[in-house]
Design a protein that fits this description.
The complex is a heterodimer of chains A (635) and B (284).
Chain A (H helix, E strand, L loop, with lengths): L2 H21 L4 H25 L2 E5 L1 H24 L3 H19 L9 E5 L1 H31 L7 H20 L3 H19 L5 H32 L4 H5 L6 H14 L7 H5 L5 H10 L1 H16 L3 H22 L4 H22 L2 H32 L10 H4 L1 H15 L4 H12 L4 H25 L15 H19 L1 H17 L6 H11 L3 H19 L24 E3 L5 E3 L8 H4 L1 H21 L4
Antiparallel strand pairs in A: 1-2, 3-4
Helix pairs in contact in A: 1-2, 1-6, 2-5, 2-6, 3-4, 3-7, 4-8, 5-6, 5-12, 5-16, 5-21, 6-7, 7-8, 8-10, 10-13, 12-16, 13-15, 14-15, 14-20, 14-26, 15-16, 15-20, 16-18, 16-19, 16-21, 16-22, 16-23, 18-20, 18-21, 19-23, 22-23
Chain B lengths: L5 H30 L9 H10 L8 H22 L4 H20 L4 H32 L6 H5 L3 H4 L1 H14 L27 H23 L6 H21 L5 H22 L3
The chains are: A mainly alpha (635), B mainly alpha (284).
Chain lengths: 635, 284
């Protein structure tokens, strides 16, 4: 058997089997060993797969047959959930999906079923690496997190073994999703990730968790239905269920492609489908980090990027670009009005996924490079930030940004790593900013998209600055505390923090060594033009003189920190005599010598950026853009 | 321009830029004083002030403040170097913006309401003017076919002719960045701020001097950015920049301070429409 095939089997089936072993009720030490083993397995296999290079593997038609029988089984599971949670929309959509699937199975079965192809190209390798490396680390973090979560979780919570089953098996499903070309298998894995998401969101079993899980499955069932419909139409009209064949089929394939784009947009929570991702934040932190920020939502981005060549230069591509850019601007505005840290991260995730969709819709070499850059760096930074918020929440008991003042003293390790994570989202010349830079450059010929991207970028500054300012707020202390977190959690935080720091500092060399060559291979060296010039101009940006100047001055700063003396500390000016009280130095004598506290929250500007204010008009606009997605097909 | 070894050019720039900025600030104070019927401080007063600050003993509220002050200065110098070396315009903007962001964070990291309100307002201002600056760079690209700041020199066509509306919008941004009324909301050169000194209130001594020096760099940077609109002829460029700075002083003395939310609304409607209209010409 070919080594690649073995690696892929390990990547897909490995985690699923490990997941099943969790269900046998392993506890404590044994469970940790199994989780570590599965994480190591996927990380190593993904690394080997990446090293073995680009290729296609054709599997015998038997695999296709297995896929077409497993798909109805997965839909039946969905239907069962619809029955259990008494949700008519889920039952209805799963029912229609089942009918489509069976009709496809019996109505027009080709005499020789198609072979299933596995596509190992740059895009899928990048996603496999993201899923396996980041995902693997998050499952390790979950070991520490769940040990503590078990103690204070509500009595309604599902068993932790079930939690680990879905968390670990998810890695396999996701790896499968990004490697297969056959739409039956794609749909199978797609539904599988939806189911994982449903059970993991509902893990705590509280009313809140149940409602959120219900919302997630309802919306994602719509996405699954769109995907099944696309598969059915493709088989009916084009006679093939291979995604790459469908993409090459020209005008006749536009409707299936539009349906797939819809499925992708629901999965990556683009407006107006964002509500399920926001609800998903009730899940335990490793779930938010793994499924709802760094990997599962990237399945949507992956599918759009995969289809991008077929949508390029068509009204479909333009509409996807507009929809993405609109989501970027609106979600960035929505994030400003939020004081719940996890929600800010969720909106920022939605915004960045929108930006990836924009780049996919534009589909030029520079846009493709931008999309890849954002895809990679966003997954890294966002996973790290979610884990930090989770750790902070377990310690201070709140996920509200305004409660995070002073954590620099209370939990210096986590906070410093969170600072690295936030800096990586907005500091030049780090990865995310290079991505945004290229995204703006690639939108330069589409005024509407350009304006939305610019507006979104400006708004982004607001919520990051507020948050970063809040977590670095601290009174002076002579010594730092040493925080106590589970070694699993601190170990993963340190590893990921170091990873983010290294990849961000080397963002320009990485662009030169990886992103640009990939974009050039995908588009071909010969297709010279404006976009290629832009690609080069990014490359020509010399980042090392920048680091020299920066390094010199930052060194000066560190030197002045070293010579820093306690006697140089004063209390802040509060327009009244300060009341020294040890830790908190923001009490002062106000009128009649009364002790008063000076407290100040950041601006959230809810009359302008409040959730209900913005969604009230953004959701209808976004819905109209989605309608346009289909409208343009019938012009 | 005289071709110089890049290293020497950068070194000269780093030494001379704050001096130019300080002189501009001195002239601004003199003009303001004369307009108000006062004699005013000597033109070199900003130098004296800064030197005096540098010689004071350092006093801070916490350690983060120090780091943010240095980051503010570092990124400001970097932005200026990128501008003068004609590097990529968007990267220049990001670095320029991060410099201001460091200042904001330095103001936010202390438990002082004045400083924190000042910081919040400064973020509002950033969000208000950032789209105009990005649109300016887009305009630069559409006019020159390159995102390099140095490209205008190569084409030989003055930017002002193709970007007149953007220039007006940009002047408003300059007024905000120079902390001129009606936009001196976050902190002010004048003593009539209800936030005492706002954003920078908790900085003193040498660390305040660092912020002052960074502001001198910033002033020079804005001066050069205005010159960029007619960079093909040095004298016209100088005249344009001087006239614009004179206008800033007049505006500063003629207006009362407004609120940050007003500035945000004004920038995202009036100024943005002006800039967008200018950009749309290129697509027709």
């Amino acid at each position: 058997m070919e080594t690649n095939l073995l690696l892929i089997t390990l990547l897909v089936l490995g985690p699923i089997l490990f997941g099943v072993s969790m269900l046998t009720g392993l506890r404590g030490y044994a469970r940790s060993v199994m989780v570590v083993a599965s994480a190591l397995l996927v990380m190593v296999s993904a690394g080997l797969l990446a090293a073995s290079g680009v290729r296609e593997i054709t599997l015998p038609s038997l695999v296709t047959e297995v896929g077409s029988f497993l798909e109805p089984a997965m839909i039946l599971a969905m239907l069962a959930i619809g029955l259990r949670i008494r949700s008519w929309p889920v039952r209805l959509m799963a029912g229609v999906q089942l009918a489509l699937c069976l009709a496809g199975l019996f109505l027009h079965r080709a005499p020789h079923p198609e072979e299933t192809r596995l596509i190992i190209d740059h895009l899928s390798i990048i996603l496999v690496l993201i899923v396996s490396v980041i995902g693997g680390l998050i499952t390790l973090y979950a070991l520490g997190y769940m040990a503590s979560h078990e103690h204070h979780a509500p009595a309604t919570a599902a068993p932790t073994s079930r939690f680990f089953f879905f968390l670990v098996a998810f890695l396999g499903l996701m790896n499968g999703l990004v490697l297969v070309d056959n739409m039956k298998w794609l749909s199978l894995f797609w539904e599988g990730t939806t189911l994982c998401s449903f059970f993991l969101i509902g893990h705590d079993g509280t009313d809140d968790a149940k409602a959120s899980a219900r919302k997630a499955i309802t919306l994602n069932a719509l996405g699954g239905l769109a995907m099944s419909l696309a598969g059915f139409l493709a088989a009916w009209n084009i006679g093939s269920e291979s995604l790459s064949t469908v993409m090459g089929a020209g005008g006749i394939a536009l409707l299936p492609l539009a349906l797939l784009a819809l499925a992708a947009m629901i999965k990556s929570a683009q407006l107006p489908f964002q509500s399920w991702l926001l609800g998903a934040m009730v899940a335990p932190t490793p779930v938010s980090a793994l499924l709802h920020s760094s990997t599962m939502v990237k399945a949507g981005s992956y599918l759009i990027l995969r289809m991008a060549p077929a949508m390029a230069d068509s009204a479909l591509g333009t509409t996807v670009a507009v929809a993405g850019a609109f989501t970027f601007a609106a979600a960035s505005a929505l994030a400003i009005g939020q004081s719940n840290g996890k929600k800010v991260l969720a909106y920022s995730t939605i915004a960045n996924l929108g930006l990836i969709a924009t780049c996919a819709g534009i589909h030029t070499p520079i846009a493709f490079a931008a999309a890849l850059t954002i895809l990679i760096y966003h997954a890294l930074s966002k996973a790290l930030l979610f884990l930090c918020v989770g750790t902070i929440e377990q310690t201070i008991g709140s996920r509200h940004i305004e409660d995070m003042g002073g954590i620099l003293f209370k939990m210096p390790l986590t906070t410093n790593i969170a600072i690295i994570g936030m800096a990586s989202m907005m500091m030049p010349p780090f990865g995310m900013l290079i991505g945004k830079w290229m995204a703006i450059e690639s939108a330069v010929h589409q005024p509407l998209v350009l304006f939305l991207v610019i507006a979104g970028s400006a708004l982004t500054i607001f919520f990051w600055a507020k948050w970063l300012g809040r977590i670095t707020t601290a009174s002076y202390h002579d010594t730092y505390k040493i925080e106590t977190v589970s070694p699993w959690m601190s170990g993963v935080l340190v590893t990921m923090g170091a990873g983010v720091l290294v990849t961000c500092l080397s963002a320009m060399p990485l662009y030169h060594a990886i992103i640009k060559p990939i974009s050039l291979t995908v588009f071909g060296q010969v297709s010279a033009g404006e976009s290629l010039t832009l690609l080069d101009s990014v490359d020509q940006f010399l980042s090392w003189p920048l680091f020299v100047i920066l390094g010199a001055i930052v060194l000066a700063g560190i030197t002045s920190l070293l010579f820093f003396k306690h006697s140089q500390i004063r209390l802040p000016f509060l327009c009244g005599e300060n009341v020294p009280d040890g830790d908190f130095s923001f009490e002062f004598r106000s009128l009649a010598d009364k002790k008063d506290r000076a407290l100040l929250n950041s601006y959230y500007l809810s009359p302008i950026f409040g959730e209900s204010t913005i969604t009230a008009w953004c959701n209808p606009v976004a819905a109209l853009i989605i309608l346009t997605l289909f409208g343009v097909l019938f012009l | 321009m005289i071709p110089l070894n890049p290293a020497i050019e950068i070194a000269l720039l780093i030494v001379l830029a704050p001096l130019i900025g300080a002189l501009l600030a001195g002239m601004d104070r003199k003009l303001t004083a004369r307009a108000q019927g006062r004699i005013g401080p000597p033109i070199l007063q900003p130098f004296f002030d800064t030197v005096k600050l540098l010689r004071k003993s350092p006093i801070v509220v916490n350690r983060m403040q120090i780091m943010y002050a240095y980051l503010h200065l570092a990124f400001m110098i970097l932005a200026l170097v990128l501008l003068v070396r004609g590097q990529d315009s968007l990267m220049f903007l990001f670095i320029f913006a991060f410099s201001t962001l460091s200042l904001v964070l330095g103001g936010m990291c202390v438990r002082s309401p004045y400083s924190r309100i000042g910081s919040q307002r400064e973020i509002m201002l950033m969000v208000a003017y950032e789209p105009i600056l990005i649109l300016l760079m887009i305009g630069l690209y559409l006019a020159n076919g390159s995102f390099l700041l140095g490209a205008t020199l190569a084409t030989g066509k003055p930017l002002l002719l193709s970007l007149p509306l953007l220039f007006i919008a940009f002047l408003v941004v300059v007024a905000i960045k120079l902390q001129k009324s009606p936009f001196d909301i976050a902190t002010s050169h004048h003593a009539h701020q209800e936030l005492v000194k706002g954003l920078t209130i908790e900085y003193s001594g040498p660390y305040l001097a660092i912020l002052e020096i960074a502001h001198f760099y910033e002033t020079t940077l804005l001066f050069f950015l205005i010159m960029m609109f007619w960079v093909t002829n040095l004298w016209i460029a100088l005249a344009l920049a001087c006239a614009s700075f004179f206008l800033m002083t007049v505006v500063d003395n003629a207006f009362a301070r407004l609120t940050s939310i007003w500035t945000f609304r004004f920038m995202w409607t009036g100024a943005l429409l002006l800039a967008l209209t200018n950009i749309l010409w290129f697509y027709l």
